[in-house]
Amino acid sequence: MITVYGFSPSGNCHKVKLLLEQLGRRLDRDYRWIETNSAIGETRTPGYLAKNPNGKVPMIELDDGCVLVESNAILCWLADGTSFLPADPWQKAQALSWLFFEQYSHEPYIAVARFICGWTPADSPRRAGLPVLRQCGHAALAVMERHLAANPWFTGSDYGIADVALYAYTCVAPHGGIALDAYPALRDWLSRVEATPGFLPLPAPEPAAQVLIDQSH
Amino acid sequence: MITVYGFSPSGNCHKVKLLLEQLGRRLDRDYRWIETNSAIGETRTPGYLAKNPNGKVPMIELDDGCVLVESNAILCWLADGTSFLPADPWQKAQALSWLFFEQYSHEPYIAVARFICGWTPADSPRRAGLPVLRQCGHAALAVMERHLAANPWFTGSDYGIADVALYAYTCVAPHGGIALDAYPALRDWLSRVEATPGFLPLPAPEPAAQVLIDQSH
Questions:
Q1: B188 and B100 within one domain
Q2: Mind listing the pLDDT tens digit of every residue in chain B (217 residues)?
Q3: Which of chain A's residues have a Cβ under 8 Å away from the Cβ of B56?
Q4: Residue B76: which of A96, A101, A107 has the nearest Cβ?
Q5: Which domain-ending residue is among A79, A107, A133?
Q6: Residue-wise DSSP of B192-213
């Protein structure tokens, strides 16, 4: 049994759950989920830091106590040898390239804008950073739109983990005030992802977060 | 022949050159290097953006015109099937985990602090961000130090691409005002990396950048 430490509203954590489900792994049969609220310090306890000194979710733990961190590394491990990651070295490298793009040029803007809008107080000084985050988030979406004008997926010729990773926060970019109207190919791709077998949507924000999100735009 | 588009002072670009050399590939025999100065917009020309819409270095291009971007994806592709990346899926995933750590929790602080100190004007408003960047950079180094207290390398049991990736900016963290004195295991690891066969040091900053670095502390 795989133990997943995750915070349900987090796209990085949802990636892991979505891939597990699409690989046919089932909650409480093949994996357990330990809800770990990083927004209130549950990844900063001594017990958690002993397992992951970087203090982040998601983390997976095997029955022998071995742990693996970093959402996209977890996706790679789960997908290894499956159709969700190409076996061809060049195609695999292209998928990895999109995984690194997601963590460097996409998530730090789109996920962080969303977090600030929904999970920080209405008067948080972090809100001053939203215009720059949104501008950089749009730049990332424009790179994706350009790829999708000529390619149906980000993981080689088929749906796979680069799509799982990029879907997670792209689908909720509007929570951070980053509209998707200007990206028709991207919106079509979101629909294709949502039509894949075993697809599982990201949970809706809890009511308090939704109120803050609605007030942010 | 592989064509590498890179900016020599960039640790992300040096990673590629270091691994190529350690794999026995030689400049102008097995790969060519096209110097591409991202600090003066050479990654934002129409010609460059046509190849990499994200406008970053490094980028590699094969003879058939196919390109691969993202430094750590390039490392994975070059190392695939070699001793620089473990074949065992779990060990490979751990190496990937460190590659994602490097791009998310390390480079955005340590490399950016260095860039601001050496490659922005002495009166750049970006310098106001240095204290936070340095604090987060130290947090990343502390995570590395903890790993190195019990493990000689970041890539499974041997030196490999996670070490190449993490070495690139750790060795020049002091350029950004991030001292390494508090991390003895990390300094020992830097020495071990520098003693690996075919090691190639990062070029020293050009004189104008060195003057700015010296004035930043």
A1: yes
A2: 999 999 999 999 999 999 999 999 999 999 999 999 998 999 999 999 999 999 999 999 999 999 999 999 999 999 999 999 999 999 999 999 999 999 999 999 999 999 999 999 999 999 999 999 999 999 999 999 999 999 999 998 999 999 999 999 999 999 999 999 999 999 999 999 999 999 999 999 999 999 999 999 7
A3: 105
A4: A96
A5: A79
A6: HHHTSTT--PPPPPPHHHHHHH
Residue A84 lies in a domain: no
Residue among A66, A100, A108 minimizing CB distance to B73:
A100
Residue A75 shares a structural domain with residue A153: no
CB B160 within 8 A of CB B86: yes
Q: Do B100 and A103 touch (CB under 8 A)?
A: yes
Residue appearing with tokens 């979406």: A141
Among residues A160, A164, A176, A158, which one has the least CA distance to residue A200? A164
Calculate the alpha carbon distances from A82 to A98, B6, B100 in Å: 18, 34, 21
ipTM over 0.90: yes
Of B56, B79, B102, which one is at a domain's C-terminal end?
B79
The beta-carbon neighbor of A97 closest among B69, B92, B105 is B69
The nearest CA of chain A is from the CA of B216 a distance in Å of 25
**Cross-chain residue pair A90–B68, CB shorter than 8 Å:** yes
Domain of A41: which CATH number?
A: 3.40.30.10
